[in-house]
Specification:
By secondary structure, the chain is an alpha+beta fold. It has two domains: 12-200 and 335-433, Aminopeptidase, CATH 3.40.630.10; 204-332, Alpha-Beta Plaits, CATH 3.30.70.360. Helix content is 33%, strand content 24%. The chain is built from 14 helices and 19 strands. It has helices at 4-9, 13-30, 41-53, 123-139, 163-169, 171-174, 227-240, 249-258, 309-320, 342-354, 371-374, 395-398, 408-426, 430-433; strands spanning 58-62, 68-74, 84-89, 109-110, 113-115, 147-152, 178-181, 188-190, 193-202, 204-213, 217-218, 276-284, 290-291, 294-303, 325-332, 335-336, 359-365, 380-383, 405-407. The strands form five sheets. It has a six-stranded mixed beta sheet with strand order 1-2-6-3-7-18. Helix 2 (13-30) crosses helix 4 and helix 10 runs antiparallel to helix 13. It is globular, with a radius of gyration of 24 Å.
Length: 435
Amino acid sequence: MAAPSSSIALRTPWEAFERRTLDWFRDLVRLDTSNPPGNERLVADYLAARLEAAGIDAACVEAAPGRTNLIARLRGHRPELPPLMLASHTDVVPAEPQRWTRAPFGAEIADGCVWGRGAIDMKAKCAMDLALLIALRRAGLVGDRDVIVAATADEESGSQFGAQFLVERHPELVRAGFVLNEVGGFTMYLGGRRFYPIQIAEKGFVTVRMTVAAAPGHGSIPRPTTAITRMAELITRIAHAQMRVQVTPPLRRTFAALGLTRDTATALFRPMLSNTVTPTIVSAGYKDNVIPGEASVILDGRTLPGEDVASFLAELRSIVGQEPTLEVLKSAPASESSIDTPLYRLIAARIEAADPGAAAVPWMLPGATDSKFYTRLGAACYGFSPVKLGPMTPFGSLYHGNDERLPIDGFYWGLKLYTEVVLSFLGINFDSVFE
Ligand SMILES: [Zn+2]
């Protein structure tokens, strides 16, 4: 008669590692780090306790109370080699429980998936990083180079209290030659073939407040031109404008890998072919019978590699004309990492070995991640948070979506691949850790 404990005893070291990592992943999902307000200290404390139990000191640094970033490091035996950093952010976007099938912070297992906010974005990778560092420490193995684990706050609101703060105020903690971060390594089905994007570039952003003014007046005396009607016209113009199409070098690499051109690219690639502008917050008026003298809109602008604030504003001006005032609220340039590195080649080769017939593809993200900041310290940053997905998984819409969930078998597949890549890059034999 098999008691439950005997089946646990029969697990291989690798199976025990899988189960532990899954348990930690679910624990992390249960910690509500919705941003705002963030409260990432919950996760930092959890990680610090696990690391401490394994004899690893972690640095916890905060740009504001509760907005804790955790950084831990295992030293390699060749200090001249640039470190490898395993990066994750620990905040999540808020969830509306009434729109979910299961509790967003319950980490329930159902239909073969772990359900919860952060299951994809990105507590699974955070758990993988934690488990790997601890496995290395427990095995008493030292890699060629330092390996750093960084678990940061505030990515979902622009990283001001997280990666940006660390890069600007504590660069010694997060300076690395290579970074493995989010958005990449998941199965993508295109034209009947399987691909795995690896993020090598991301667009920049320019956030602009656009304001128009016109004479105020009494709501009882209508007229065709007011600040509100002018703003409505300008927003409509933006929505219908086609911004200048450019195939930038990172996109050219993607197209080459997929056998696509600018003309055959699907709608998926539209945001990568030009700068974009999206109106996100409209403000005007303060009383129901007053025509306001001013209306404004926040524009979420995204810029291609090679563009800057001035070139973006010039393009926006060509759409909206000289009338509105444009005020830049925040900006950051696009970032890009070389694919001509041993780590990129290793990732691509291991992906293709782990899923025969599939191809790894360099990828540009239309959005922004912490990689934008880490590249400023000279790191080559790759989006590699691997998970194997079936063709019917609506992966893209689960990012920040309702019913966010991650298939457990795909998670285990990704954990194995991720572990192989990290250990191989550190010069550590897989079997020596999991024998
Ligand atoms: Zn994320």
